[in-house]
Structure formats: C-alpha cells, structure tokens
Design goal:
The structure is a single chain. Helix content is 62%, strand content 10%. With 232 residues, it is mainly α. A three-stranded antiparallel sheet has the order 1-2-3, covered by helices on one side. The protein contains nine helices and three strands, in the order ααααααααβββα.
Length: 232
C-alpha cells in the first residue's frame, strides 16, 4: 500500500482528517476479506463526489461559455463526468496504487479497472469536500479538469466547423470535403500538424494544430471564411 502522505502531495491537498482520504480508497471487496477493518467502503463518499462534480462542471460551463445552449452544455458535461474521463484522471494521479482492494478484485485487475478507478475518483472528491469545504473542493476539481474542459470545447468546435463545411460542400458538389495531412513537425510530445481541406481537387483551407483534429478544425474554419455559393 502506497503512503498516503505521498498521495496527498500528488493531489495537492493536505487533509485535516486523513481518515477521510483513507475511507475514499476502501473498495467493498477489501471489507469482505477484512471484516475487522475500522472503516466502511467508499460508496457514500462516491455519491457525494459525483454530485459535486456534476454541479461544479455545470457551473463552469455556464459561466465560461455563455454562447452554449442547454443541450450543448448537457452534452459537454456528460462527456466530462463520464466513466472514461474520470478513470483517465484517476490514472494520471496514480490512484489505483493507493486503493484498498480484496485479493480477488486485485487479481482481476481492479487497480486499473475503469469502473473502479472512476468510482474511487468520485470518492476522493467527496473526501475533499468533506475535509476542505465546498470552495476547496471546487478549486481541486477545476484544477484537475482544466485540460479536459479545454479539450472538450476544442472537440465541439472542431465538430461544428467540420459539420458546417460538409453541409455547404455537399449541397454544391454532392461529395464531402477531404482532409489531408501534409506536414508533421516537432518531437512526439509537442507535435504540430498541418492539414489542408480539398474540394473538387482544389485546396480551400489550410490549418495547423497540436493534433490532426485541431488542424482539421482550423482548416475547416479557414475554408468557411472563404466559402460562398459561387466559389469552387
């Protein structure tokens, strides 16, 4: 079992009551094999953390992105608090190394199981709000989700630009636009991609970005700026 002092450093949170953090890491399977253990499972904290995550992310989207509709905010919130996102964040914290698991659960890969990691992540959030209060927990959540929110907004924009361009191009040419990567630059950890969008053998937009998706988004945006019913 990894040291909880180390885990607090990873989280960036110093607990007043360390038993709350410990409780957040107790999987039900551990209690089945250790009935004398003084703590219960993390399921109640999981409920609390899930509720806080939903509210904090919803409030962030509402305040930061006034142009988003209710439906768009709902989709983004769902993407941000879904199991795969929470499991990925839990993995980035090394949370699985700190879990109290039964032998059977551990033998079946419990420390890397997405459902287990996501629930434990919610429980840790619940422990933070109980120990640090709402404002402290809100700051904790937003610091962890900053990159995820940015990526989700970028992905939405990419979809919007590409969908709009496809509608316009198909209406005129009856074929979708073609995206072609023409350049990759930089080391693996800091790649830059250049993509061009082609219609009827003509390049109508060029974009650069940190990923192929973002380069395609920029190419579509550029293409839309120059698009007219009589062009191409």
């Amino acid at each position: 079992m990894a040291d909880l002092d180390t885990f607090q450093q990873v989280l960036g949170v110093t607990f007043r009551d360390l038993s709350l953090l410990k409780l957040a890491l107790v999987h039900r399977s551990y209690l089945n094999e250790n009935p004398e253990f003084p703590l219960t499972s993390n399921e109640r904290l999981e409920f609390l953390g899930d509720s806080l995550l939903t509210f904090v992310i919803a409030e962030k989207l509402y305040q930061e992105f006034p142009d988003l509709s209710e439906g768009e905010m709902t989709k983004l919130r769902s993407a941000l608090v879904r199991q795969s996102t929470l499991a990925r964040l839990a993995g980035s914290l090394g949370l699985g190394d700190y879990l109290y698991l039964g032998h059977g659960e551990e033998a079946t890969g419990g420390r890397t199981k997405p459902s287990t990691l996501a629930r434990a992540f919610e429980a840790v959030v619940g422990a933070v709000v109980m120990d640090q209060g709402f404002d402290g927990a809100k700051q904790f959540v937003l610091s962890l989700f900053q990159g995820e929110i940015h990526s989700a907004i970028e992905e939405k924009l990419a979809g919007d630009y590409k969908s709009r361009l496809q509608e316009l191009v198909q209406a005129k040419h009856q074929v979708p636009p073609l995206y072609r990567t023409i350049k990759e630059e930089g080391p693996d950890h800091a790649k830059k991609f250049t993509v061009e969008v082609i219609v009827a053998d003509s390049v109508i937009g060029v974009g650069r970005g940190r990923s192929k998706r973002m380069a395609e988004m920029e190419a579509a945006r550029v293409a839309l700026e120059g698009f007219s019913p009589d062009s191409q």
